[in-house]
From TrEMBL, chain A:
InterPro entries: ABC_transp_permease (IPR001851). This is Ribose transport system permease protein. It comes from the Bacteria. Pfam families: BPD_transp_2 (PF02653). The keyword Amino-acid biosynthesis does not apply. Its main location: membrane. The chain crosses the membrane at residues 26-47, 59-76, 173-196, 227-251, 263-291, 298-322. It is a multi-pass membrane protein.
Automatic annotation (TrEMBL), chain B:
SMART domains: AAA. This is ABC transporter ATP-binding protein. The keyword Repeat does not apply. GO terms for molecular function: ATP binding; ATP hydrolysis activity. Residues 4-243 form the ABC transporter domain.
Length: 332, 246
């Protein structure tokens, strides 16, 4: 039997099942589900509504920033400043509201500050050719220092006339008893997922990560897109900062310390490749969820909390190991 | 009328004369081999046609109109496309995504403007069929052969309906079987009435697919003759300088 050229061209080599089985996000999701089933059976305290509420809410801060980080990683970059930007955003919000301004003004000020930081990172990386690692490492130090300057390194826990509205924004549960941070996370994930899959902008992110030179030659506005992506990353950290402020009800200048590493871990566990060109919004959520489930389960199982780092670090290395195996297979 | 006409084109970088008083014209639907040793001025000449460099002297005319290009985008607007030696493809994207990179098609989904995957897959498939290349629009470039990659890069030029395609060493880094595939792609382009300039070191490729060969040596044109009236031995002599000029 001979196949015509048209049949060959029309043939789909992959169906949804093979795509699914090759997806790292899918296997991490399976791991999470398996862990949850095991924990529900092994402990009395895991499958309680209070614990589930806690887990889902704790996931959100990492997950929201991981959404932005995933976009940065897709273009082959890295953003180490997110933890400090979260702190700066929280502190700008807190100081503004403490000074007597309303919630709206505080939120706008915090978001604009975040965007400015991201824009600064982006311009240095895209237009002046600085390595993103170094620029954002510098910003990690600068942003936290600015937060200390803004607050004189004090704890802010009174947020002026809109104090209660802020706490409700971050700590409430406006819809079906689901914690507000979870709602924000789901909303943002849907937006990021849509942008990555269905827009030219998203397509161009993958192109830049795959072959920046090719993207430039085909007329993709590479520099502009890079600046936009670093701004989005900082914005996601800023949003997480605002929500976290409302949830905690107090801001210190050490919130978000070391968070950049946890966020990068979430993105990588969820399938983003630090080489660039690979990553999804769902992956960011799933990666963040796995980290939180590990953290939570170690506590419930009575394992010393000092082991957390070892387990999470092990997951990162296993995730990268899977990617390496795939690379070796495809290069055969 | 000639598609492209070069008159007394020269280019010098400081004291170095890279291209010296070169004139030729390209007709619609012909394949011209551009040959010469390293440093003969091939790349400089091509870069002038591609809009990377302005000529120091001389003029270019495209379909009778004077042509001055300051940037590569200008060349593309005039219907001149380059297939780069490294092909400028993204390994992590599908063939269709690469063909449409920077020229994506959209459709409306309610109030949202979204990528039109269906149309892009279908049209890319049509172009591959037209090129008679066994390339599947949904496959990732990463998993493709050298010949299929060339097909994707060439499909890009079909999309813009280029009149002149410059191919920079398309057969330099691929296997013998794939060379035949690439040469047939060039013939497909010619069948569509596209003019192809094939820059190559490989004598057999030029002699199997080109209608005419232009030889450069030390920045000067030393031969411009029909393949039928020449021979690989003669062209080798012209490239090395054993034969002064014909």
């Amino acid at each position: 039997m001979t196949t015509t050229l048209d049949q060959t061209i029309a043939k789909k080599q992959h169906n949804w099942r093979s795509t699914l089985l090759k997806s790292q996000t899918f296997w991490v999701l399976i791991a999470i589900i398996a862990a949850c089933v095991f924990l529900s059976l092994a402990t009395d305290s895991f499958a309680t509504s209070k614990n589930i509420f806690n887990i889902t809410r704790n996931v959100t801060f990492t997950a929201i920033i991981a959404l932005g980080m995933t976009m940065v990683i897709i273009i082959g970059g890295i953003d180490l400043s997110v933890g400090s930007v979260l702190c700066l955003s929280s502190m700008v919000l807190a100081v503004t509201m403490h000074a007597g301004y309303g919630l709206e003004i505080g939120v706008v000020a915090a978001l604009l500050t975040s965007l400015a930081v991201g824009g600064f990172n982006g311009v240095l990386v895209a237009y002046l050719g600085f390595p993103p690692f170094v620029v954002t490492l510098g910003m990690l130090s600068i942003a936290r220092s600015l937060a200390m300057v803004a607050s004189n390194n004090t704890v802010v826990f009174e947020f002026g006339p809109d104090h209660d509205r802020l706490l409700d924004l971050g700590g409430g549960a406006w819809f079906l008893g689901i914690a507000n941070p979870v709602l924000y996370m789901v909303g943002l994930a849907l937006i990021v997922g849509f942008v990555l899959r269905w827009t030219k902008f998203g397509r161009h992110l993958y192109a830049i990560g795959g072959n920046e030179n090719a993207a430039t030659l085909t007329g993709v506005p590479v520099r502009l897109i890079k600046v936009a992506v670093y701004m989005i990353s900082a914005l996601s950290a800023g949003i997480a900062g605002i929500i976290q402020t409302g949830w905690l009800g107090a801001v210190t200048t050490n919130i978000g310390t070391g968070m950049e590493l946890q966020v990068i871990a979430a993105a990588v566990i969820g399938g983003a490749s630090l080489v660039g060109g690979v990553g999804t919004a769902l992956g960011a959520l799933v990666g963040a969820a796995l980290i939180e489930v590990i953290r939570n389960s170690l506590g419930l199982l009575g394992i010393n909390a000092f082991w957390q780092g070892a387990f999470i670090g092990g997951c990162i290395i296993i995730a990268v190991g899977f990617e390496r195996v795939r690379q070796l297979r495809s290069s055969d | 009328m000639a598609i492209l006409e070069l008159s007394n084109i020269s280019k010098h970088f400081g004291a170095i004369q890279a291209v010296n008083d070169v004139s030729f014209s390209l007709e619609a639907g012909e394949v011209v081999g551009l040959m010469g040793d390293n440093g003969a001025g091939k790349s400089t000449l091509v870069k002038m046609i591609a809009g990377n460099f302005l000529p120091s002297e001389g003029s270019m005319r495209m379909e009778g109109q004077s042509l001055v290009m300051h940037r590569p985008v200008d060349a593309r607007r005039h219907g001149i496309e380059i297939v780069h030696q490294d092909l400028a493809l993204c390994n992590n994207l599908t063939a269709a995504a690469n063909v449409y990179l920077g020229r994506e098609i959209h459709r409306w989904f309610g109030p949202l403007r979204v990528l039109d995957y269906g149309t892009m897959y279908r049209r890319a498939g049509e172009i591959f069929a037209e090129l008679k290349s066994e390339t599947r629009p949904r496959d990732l470039i990463r998993n493709m052969s050298g010949g299929q990659r060339q097909a994707v890069a060439i499909a890009r030029t079909r999309l813009s309906e280029a009149k002149l395609v410059l191919m920079d060493e398309p057969t330099a880094a691929i296997s013998v079987r794939q060379v035949a595939e690439v040469l047939s792609l060039i013939q497909r382009l010619r069948d569509q009435g596209v003019t192809v300039v094939l820059i190559s070191h490989r004598m057999p490729d030029v002699f199997s697919v080109a209608d005419r060969v232009i030889v450069l040596r030390r920045g000067r044109k030393v031969a411009d003759k029909l393949i039928a009236n020449s021979s690989p031995e003669e062209v080798t002599g012209l490239i090395t300088g054993a034969i002064e000029k014909v």
